[in-house]
Structures
1.
Amino acid sequence: MEFDGPGSDPMGELFRAGATETTPVKRSRRAAMLLGAMLVLAVGFTLAGLVFFTGVERGVVAAYYFALHMMRGL
């Protein structure tokens, strides 16, 4: 018997045979972690770009204020 996705095993044969499936909770947790990692990278590259393009001294100050306003928004 083949596994065609959620709800394709109404009698439970695949479950008894040991087939596993990714639960929606695991999928959503994985998606949330991926989205969080992408957000951290995006903010990190933005702050690095501020430092690189405006000079070290002014860039660090600009990055600090940018991060401060981002945290206020959250």
2.
Amino acid sequence: MGSERRRHGRVTAKDASVACTSAEFAKPGSDSYNLAVRLLDTSASGACIVTKGRLREGIKVLVGVIFPKQGARVMSRATVRWSTTVESKGRTAHVAGLQFERTVAELSPSKPTPTESEKLRSKEPQRRHRRFTPEKVDIVCLPRGILTKLGVKTNSAKGLRNLSLGGAQIVSSEKLSPGDPVDLTLQFRYPATTVKAEGIVRWCRRDTLSLEPRWNVGVVFKQMDPTSDGRLRTVEAVFVDEKPAR
């Protein structure tokens, strides 16, 4: 299975209804006919959904999505590209990534043009994905350089400020340059899972409020295997879409 990420922009629609069925799992009219629980996000080429059980990779399914606000309905045949199960504190979540047989333009609506105040709200480059801050996460950032090639691996990360499906903002003990490739490993304690990604430093700024030499670094994900991609979106669903009560 390839490790490419989606080429199309993702769109989240919390009010959307989703149905997913497969001849391999259920018969029409049965209680388990609809395998989908809810929709996490969509793009013109696929969708990410929470399912009642873990789906087998490679099976063919039929997906239907209804957008109440837009009054739009979309139906497409798809293939389960990846699936994962996360268990934590008695909670179990099954998540699957679906790839449509054909590109569905209706699932990639154009985003509204940002206002001038929104453009100036932050000095750092704007991300296309929602940011969130996971609880209790350990991060390892390994810049690729001469020392790394020689087998000397030093973790430059001191902490994680926030995260999104497209990248991360980390606190680094060393100055990194835009364009530097890095390897990231994120180990989440809740939900208990690990995500690995290859990234590129987009910007780096000295933290002038810290007495120790520290830099705030923006990293864009460039390569991530399907398993880590699914795990990351599961973490996002926990802390953004449906944050559980503590």
3.
Amino acid sequence: MKKIFLTIKLTYSILAFILALALTSCMGQSSDPRGKYAELSAIPVDQAKDSESQFAAPEVFTSISALDKTELLSLKVDGTNEINQPHFLEAVESRFYFKIFPKSQKISDFKVEILDISSPLGLVSEKARIENSSRPGMFSIRWKAPKGLIPAGELYQIATMRLQTTVTAASDNNLKGLAKIDVINIIITRDNSVPIIVGKSKLGPNVDEGTIVKFTVDIEDKASLVNEKFPEALITPYKSSNPEAFRADGSSFVRLDASKNLNPERLNSQKGLWRFYFEMDLNQLPYDRTNKGKEDTNSNSVGVCFYMRFISSITTLSEQQQVCVQAQFQAKSPEVEIIENPLAEFIAQETGKIKFKISSENPFGEVDFKDPQKQVNSLFGSKEVSCYNEDKANTEKDLAIKICEISFKPSCVKKDQDKKITLKFENKMGFKVKSKDLEVNFKIKENPSLCTTSEKLKTTPQKVTKQ
């Protein structure tokens, strides 16, 4: 009798433990699963391809079990987000892809099954099926959405699909049999109408660094005629595939104009037309590159591109548009003008001057004649360089304009000579410095009245005669 009592007591203990484990496993589900997924897309069957490019970095796959096991957070899944959800047309079979794979090396195998599909009208009887792919952990779901799920007057309906993943093999026996349920949101549409770009304001072709350029794009979203959700804009990075024609990615410079209360704005002419207001803040542009991929610090501009597309109120995507402009750097090569003695003529033993005006096209530039004494060091004779900035009306110095003067007294020469030197001028703005080289041919004329024969001999190379 005592043995039977112990058996019954042990059976009750096992049942109590199983019941507690089952109750505990129901905890931890997210009440809003939509934010847990990343970029699953539905495509027609005849266009479906197993492509790794369809997937973004997955979010953490959280187990529904509340047991304190770090391995229960070891699964990841690629799913949907609000921009790119699985789409199905009524009565048209299609499929979408997803990935599930273990993070923990302890999990060696698992199975995935569809529990059910439901809509606001109830459970959907049309079954979907899971198909394996040649890639580990990658699956697709094939389904034909039945008619009758979309209410009259509506263009789409959202259904939910519940997927359960169960660990079937693991080196840790405590992990076997543990399950995870995820909910994927599916959009069912009557048609696949996409937004169309119908107009845009002029952007470029040339814009200036340091400025904010505003522009607009008008789209037609037919789905918004019966759906109150606003369409959206999507700006994506530009990727250059031609190293010999460099274009910088400008996606980070483009944003919606926050000064507009309604953005996008529904146009009065037609309810299905929308206007998006953008601004392009061109700040800290990268240098252009040579056809060998090296930075070209002497370039005055760089091509800037980005991709633009629009998302309809039923989350279908417009065609991708490439937008490019030529951005002019704030710091451009300075303009240099010889305003006195443009022929650079000097007479030996007489002091003469040549004067330059260095200016920046951009009024915020800082021009300079860097290391002038070093630059004129190759001239024979006494020389002195002086520079000053022009005054502004408010007595401040105008750093964008500088006057430089070279005072030069050539040494004696036996006959007229030409001396070519290259002078370098700079224009600085922000972190960029642009330079300009100017070749000047100094013409030095002999001066018999001031130069004695002995002085000519000192400054003129002598022939060496072999004995």
